[in-house]
Amino acid sequence: MEYFNIDLSTIFQVETPVWELVTRGSVIYLGILFLFRVLPRRTGGELAMMDLIFVLLIAEAATHSLGDYSSVTEGFIVIGTVMAWNYAINFLSYHIPFFENIVSSPPLPIIKNGKLLRRNMRREYLTEEELMDHLRMEGLEKIEEVKSAFVEGDGKISVVSKKRK
């Protein structure tokens, strides 16, 4: 019965200063946001950049609240900070177009009128073989059949065919 002898007061006691927990959560969130903005668009995969950062940090903060922090409350303070930043960034990017441009990458053209834009492909580390794989999945066999193609801000490739479907 020794296993069930838990002092609940220590589980909720905050030992690390709240300002330090909020600062840590803020610096980590904004730092990862900046790093993902600098990386190529396709690095984030299928998730939007904001969603990826949010899920990653919530998981990390939850992990610490289970082990590294001395109380559950400290973990919830960091999780709350990350949630607040996520909400604030989404709110600001919706209401302020300039802010949206700062946190989100605009679409990058990779094909224009059936011609490859190799410089932009290099920026995204997109090989011609990878692009052709994607075009085949869209039902297109030749680059000349494509009016335009873009690497979107979330890393997905969108294609506009010269033929209307």
Give a count of the beta strands, DSSP E runs of length 2 or more.
4
Class inferred from helices and paired strands: alpha+beta
Low-confidence stretches: none
Following the backbone from N to C, one meets helices and strands in this order, namely HHHHHEEHHEE
Number of helices: 7
Described by strand count, sense and barrel closure, the largest sheet is: 4 strands, antiparallel
Q: Kindly state the mean pLDDT as a whole number? A: 82
Share of helical residues: 40-55%
Percent in strands = 5-15%
Radius of gyration from CA coordinates: 22 Å
Termini separation comes to 70 Å
Please list the strands of the largest sheet in the order they lie side by side: 2-1-3-4
Number of domains: 2
Protein topology:
Elements: H1 8-11, H2 18-38, H3 49-66, H4 72-95, H5 97-103, E1 108-112, E2 115-116, H6 118-123, H7 128-137, E3 146-151, E4 157-161
Antiparallel strand pairs: 1-2, 1-3, 3-4
Architecture overview:
Helix 2 (18-38) runs antiparallel to helix 3 (49-66) and helix 3 (49-66) packs antiparallel against helix 4 (72-95). The protein contains seven helices and four strands, in the order αααααββααββ. A four-stranded antiparallel β-sheet has the order 2-1-3-4. The chain has two domains: 2-103, no CATH class; 108-161, CRO Repressor (2-Layer Sandwich), CATH 3.30.240. It is an alpha+beta fold and 165 residues long.
